[in-house]
Amino acid sequence: MPRVYSIEGSAVEEIALPPIFETEIRPDLIRRAVIAAQSARVQPWGADEMAGKRTSAETWGKGHGVARVRRVKGSRHPAAGRGALAPHTVGGRRAHPPRAAGVRRELINRKERRLAIRSAIAATKEKKLVESRGHAMGKVPELPVIVADELEEITKVKQVKVVLEKLGAWQDVERVAASTKIRAGSGKMRGRRYRQAVGPLIVVGKESGIRQGAGNLPGVDVVAVENLGAEVLAPGGVPGRLTVWTKSAIQKLAGGMFG
């Protein structure tokens, strides 16, 4: 049975893992669930269906020696006689505008999504998968890493750093900090200037301050066990994220969550 570690890094007790950690690991299903979660955040956008069409233009060119393009009617209006409505005219419609009615969301069945979450949870205890994702294991004693509930009440960044150092997970945070670089391309001007790797995930039974303590550490995410999803457990659809669990989070998983 895996051991529960105190915030000082010493083993204090043993705990039985819930059956959810024995779920078959399905990378294909995990990737589908991640894509579905990402596509759900896509904001539909497109051109106004009437853009470039709000005009009285009609064609009268036949027999007049001019192009038969539709032109604005009238004689005194500044735009009178000017081409309109057609895609190649000034102020005309676009030839093939993007349509907001397009289906841009990838759907997944509820049972498949829950199975993907269970599968991603089971992957967090596989050392080969965690290492293949590029996480720096350092001196991590064993997987899954389970810590006493005192971790949930820490509100100071320096205290969280000390705990992660004693658990052997701080080396992965340093790896993330070293990997941060400026993005290439126009994304620098669109609110995503930096690219950063993904670091450890802290799963808690109750958020009592740990989000304030660990939220600003590079690459570290804090999530309550009830809010777990495939995307946070397997960023990019690749299972095996280095995860630190609190004892209460493990106990809640034993209650049959994501069944």
How does this structure look, described?
- Helix content is 27%, strand content 10%.
- It is of the alpha/beta class and 259 residues long.
- The mean pLDDT is 93.
Indicate the CATH topology of the largest domain.
Ribosomal Protein L4, Chain: A
As a whole number of angstroms, the C-alpha radius of gyration is 28 Å
Q: CATH class of the largest domain, anyone?
A: Alpha Beta
Strand order of the largest sheet: 2-1-3-8-6-7
* CATH H-level homologous superfamily name of the largest domain: Ribosomal protein L4/L1
Shape verdict: elongated
Number of strand elements:
8
Average pLDDT for all residues: 93
The level of helicity is 25-40%
Structurally, how many domains make up the residues? 2
- The run of helices and strands is EEHHHEHHEEEHEHEH
Please state the second-level CATH architecture of the largest domain.
3-Layer(aba) Sandwich
Largest sheet: 6 strands, mixed
**Poorly predicted tracts of residues:** none
Distance between the termini: 23 Å
Derived structural class:
alpha/beta
